[in-house]
Amino acid sequence: RTAPTSLALSGFARHLVILCLERMGYTVDTTTPPTIAMVSSQQNPHGSQHDSTHPPWQEVFLTSSIQLVVPVRAILTPNHDAVLWERQQDDGTESSLWKGLRQELLPMNEHD
């Protein structure tokens, strides 16, 4: 999921990542992401509850014109008093999403 272009810069890196994700078979949801209040109350935008086995996101990352994709390890509340989301696979191994993105993005960089 990514914010719609009315809420996020539609930059080159974001565009590349969306293209790669779609080629990898992912559906990119561009509806407005849940607010901090929704996540902290464990409620998704559709009103159903999240639980610890079904967090709102499996992977979180930022796009950047310099690094293309920057993984996020955790999302904290604005006061840093609670963790809203934390990467589950934090054993140093790469998820299938990261492996696929790296394989899709590296050939693009080599041709620039």
Written overview of the protein:
- With 112 residues, the protein is α+β, with helices and mostly antiparallel strands.
- The protein is 29% helix and 13% strand.
- It has three helices and four strands.
- It has helices at 12-23, 36-40, 96-110; strands at 61-64, 68-71, 74-76, 83-86.
- The chain has a two-stranded antiparallel ribbon. It has a two-stranded antiparallel ribbon with strand order 3-4.
- Strand 3 and strand 4 (83-86) form a beta hairpin.
- Helix 1 packs across helix 3.
- The longest helix has 15 residues, at 96-110.
- The two termini are 27 Å apart.
Main attributes of the structure:
two-stranded antiparallel ribbon; alpha+beta; 112 residues
Describe the structure concisely.
The chain is an alpha+beta fold. It has three helices and four strands, in the order ααββββα.
User: What strand order characterises the main sheet?
Assistant: 1-2
Q: Taking Cα atoms only, what radius of gyration do you get, to the nearest Å?
A: 15 Å
How many H/I helical runs? 3
**Low-pLDDT regions:** 43-53
Beta-strand proportion: 5-15%
Q: What profile does the largest beta sheet have?
A: 2 strands, antiparallel
Query: What is the averaged pLDDT score?
Result: 76
Number of strands: 4
Taking the alpha carbons of the first and last residues, their distance comes to: 27 Å
Based on secondary structure, the structural category is: alpha+beta
Q: What is the N-to-C order of secondary-structure elements (H for helix, E for strand)?
A: HHEEEEH
Give the overall silhouette.
Answer: globular
Query: Roughly what percent helix?
Result: 25-40%
